[in-house]
Task: inverse folding
């Protein structure tokens, strides 16, 4: 559990400042579960430049609670939490100073989103909260007010959690969770999981990830792991101490994240993905008469293909459907052997390319349309899909025919050029399995909006 914190102060000499406003959001990594927002009477005047910066003046604080009146509530809402703030050293120092004045030692673990941003999103011109969130498309209202800055920090922290591909933040969080006995832990774990789409992680007592999975219903899938009686499942049930998860909004992003993280993390109970997750591919070549031919063959990393398939049956089913859709010749598509006309020609679904009645120029136009539709080679496009929350969308970037990564943006933010798009994207590997997952998904009925991007963008 995290406590996202922002504090406004009177300004003044070091360690003599007083709090004028505080906002704390108790955050489980996915949603806010509790909050405290309050003006605070600092019992000292506010520096004039601070009044101009925040808009908070002495008159506004005359009847506000003094710090000692909200001190207990702060302890309660931050209990068992890691404090998260933008420039956390400042906020944590101010809090501890206030508690020392009351004769109390306030201690919490802390995370700084400035330091995390520099590590996970390097190379930005500024890491001040206002400029940083603006460059990342995160909305910010009431700048230099505690609630507005804390809400922006929540959205920034969610993005940083997604960009932390090594899951160091997550593993450290799990290490600090209280441990439970075997007879109750599985029940407690299930109660905290959502029935939503995403990737889930099984952690052992050291916080290490021992299994990665994906599902359209995380709670249902994890329950299957916990009720399965095979030896592997029974062993995982004994070893698992906590289950964390990352919502993805769409199954496609969940598939891509699962594929990459199994390869990178190599969890103990996941089968090693040494082989490609596809076996066959669709190729094309031009014959001696100038006609573009299609052919299904074994996947070969040394040959350029149009698209890939999990097995031969899937490849034949897809190609049969495309031949009908694009009115192609069965023989030139490898579905009909021998010489002479294909069966389609006899029922007038083939226009006679097999017997040279249709010119190569006319026939090749339709084959090229199929190739362009199912191969994203050399293409620049953005796939816009459902987000993790109702007010956001997901984005998947393909640039120069290469999968670059995924990200999320707020509905109120205009994603209108490649620089903004790149800033919200968490980079991912453009390996053969990722290409197969994307192509296979797009062949099915899907809810993604595909936006072509010009090189000028």
Result:
């Amino acid at each position: 559990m995290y406590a996202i914190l922002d504090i406004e102060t009177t300004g003044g000499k070091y360690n003599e400042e007083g709090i004028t406003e505080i906002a704390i959001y108790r955050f489980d990594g996915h949603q806010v579960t509790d909050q405290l927002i309050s003006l605070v009477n600092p019992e000292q005047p506010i520096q004039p430049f601070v009044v101009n910066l925040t808009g908070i003046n002495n008159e506004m604080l005359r009847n506000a609670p003094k710090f000692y009146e909200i001190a207990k509530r702060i302890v309660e809402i931050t209990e068992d939490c890691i404090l998260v703030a933008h420039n956390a050293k400042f906020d944590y120092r101010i809090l501890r100073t206030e508690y020392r004045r009351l004769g109390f030692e306030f201690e919490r673990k802390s995370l700084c989103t400035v330091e995390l941003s520099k590590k996970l999103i390097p190379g930005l011109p500024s890491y001040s909260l206002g400029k940083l969130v603006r460059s990342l498309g995160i909305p910010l209202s009431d700048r230099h007010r505690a609630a507005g800055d804390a809400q922006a920090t929540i959205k920034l922290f969610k993005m940083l959690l997604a960009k932390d591909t090594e899951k160091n933040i997550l593993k450290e969080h799990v290490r600090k969770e209280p441990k439970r006995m075997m007879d109750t832990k599985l029940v407690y774990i299930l109660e905290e999981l959502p029935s939503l789409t995403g990737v889930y992680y099984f952690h052992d007592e050291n916080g290490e990830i021992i299994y990665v999975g994906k599902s359209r219903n995380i709670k249902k899938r994890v329950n299957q792991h916990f009720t399965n009686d095979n030896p592997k499942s029974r062993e995982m049930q004994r070893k698992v101490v906590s289950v964390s998860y990352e919502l993805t909004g769409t199954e496609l992003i969940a598939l891509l994240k699962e594929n990459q993280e199994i390869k990178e993390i190599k969890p103990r109970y996941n089968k090693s993905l040494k082989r490609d997750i596809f076996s066959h591919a669709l190729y094309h070549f031009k014959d001696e008469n100038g006609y573009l031919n299609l052919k299904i063959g074994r996947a070969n990393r040394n040959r350029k293909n149009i698209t890939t398939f999990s097995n031969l049956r899937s490849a034949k089913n897809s190609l049969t459907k495309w031949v009908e859709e694009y009115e192609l010749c069965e023989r030139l598509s490898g579905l009909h052997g021998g010489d002479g006309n294909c069966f389609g020609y006899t029922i007038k679904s083939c226009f006679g390319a097999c017997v040279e009645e249709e010119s190569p120029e006319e026939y090749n136009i339709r084959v090229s349309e199929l190739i362009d539709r199912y191969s994203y080679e050399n293409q620049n496009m953005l796939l816009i899909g459902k987000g993790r929350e109702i007010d956001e969308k997901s984005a998947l970037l393909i640039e120069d025919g290469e999968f670059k990564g995924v990200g999320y943006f707020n509905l109120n933010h205009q994603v209108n050029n490649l620089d903004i798009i790149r800033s919200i994207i968490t980079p991912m590997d453009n390996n053969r399995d990722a290409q197969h997952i994307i192509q296979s998904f797009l062949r099915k009925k899907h809810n993604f909006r595909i936006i072509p991007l010009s090189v000028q963008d």
Notes: The longest strand covers residues 19-27. The chain is about 35% helix and 20% strand. The chain has a mean pLDDT of 88. The two ends are 40 Å apart (CA to CA).
